Each structure stands twice: as C-alpha cells, then as structure tokens.
C-alpha cells in the first residue's frame, strides 16, 4: 500500500515555493511605484518637494519590511513542508492574494488621512497572518505534508506565532477606530514580541508535558 507521501494527490512543494517567491517579489517591487514627486516640481524646487515624500517613504519602508517578514515566515514554513496537496495549494493561493493587496493598502495609508486607511492596512495584515496560520495548521494535520522530524514545540509555535501577530493587527483596528490612526499604528509594535511570546508559551507547555 502506498504511503501518504507517495499518493498522486500530493506533490513536491518546489513549484509552489517558486511561484510564491515570484508573486511576493512582484508585490514588494510594486511598493516603489507610489514614490512620486509632484509633477510640477522643477529642478529648483526639488529640495522643497522631497520632504513631502516623508509619509510615502515611511509607508514604503514599513511595507517593504512587512512583505519581507512574510516571505521569511513562508520560507521557514516550507522548509518543514516538503509536500503539498490540493487543499494546501488553495490556502497558499489565498495567502498570496492577501499579499498582493499590501501595495494597495500602502497607497491608501500614504495618501489619505483618517482612521480608515490604517484599519484597511491592519485588516489586510491580519488576513495575511491568519492565512499563514491556516497553512501551517493544514500541513500539520494532513499526513505526509509536514516533515516527520519537526518537533512538537515547533509544530505548536508555528501555529501560535502568526495567530499572535494577527491578534495584534486585529486589535489595532479597534484602537485606530477609538483613538485615531497614530495610536493604531503604534499598536503594531507589539507584533515584534509575538515570536518571543509564542516560544515562551510553547516551551512552557512542553515542559509541563514532561512533568
């Protein structure tokens, strides 16, 4: 009898990784299209025009880092997921659909005031992180997809870390609505501690299981 990894419904993950890398490379490149000087800016007024790009540059840098971190998280996931099936292909496709929305919400964030652009940006990043968690959850529960040598702690942390980041961005939606966009954007800094917290929580669970 064929093992799950030998069935025709499962394939190597190489093409999925190559396609995903290409889509994310395009998304990160599109960010620069929003950096434009005013059409009326002349050589003499260039010094006055450049400071006006500060907001656009900040949003560009933020989203460049965000897509880069998403790419690294995706890369780390599929270092442990050598095989894929139809369900995982669809989940990854939806994840990429969320990624390519980042240049759009970046343009909203850099070009418009008010809470709504911040809310839209946070909603898209929440969706991205939820999809990363779903990809890992699906691969973990489906025999033959995830490498057998992935430890239980890594299996738990791979699910918990993106969910914690998603919770930060989802929570920032309420903060931006109640207290304004600046407060909502400052909330995003909490996402930096998600990996550390996920590691502490999963290692605590692992130690508890040994007792």
UniProtKB/TrEMBL annotation:
Pfam hit, one: TMEM175
Transmembrane regions: 16-33, 53-74, 86-109, 115-138, 159-180
InterPro entries given in the database record: TMEM175-like
Keywords: Ion channel, Ion transport, Membrane, Potassium, Potassium channel, Potassium transport, Transmembrane, Transmembrane helix, Transport
Membrane-topology descriptor: Multi-pass membrane protein
Domain of life: Bacteria
Gene Ontology molecular function, alphabetical: potassium channel activity; proton channel activity
GO CC list: membrane
Compartments where located: Membrane
Catalysed reactions, as listed in the record: K(+)(in) = K(+)(out)
Family per record: Belongs to the TMEM175 family.
Protein name (record): Integral membrane protein
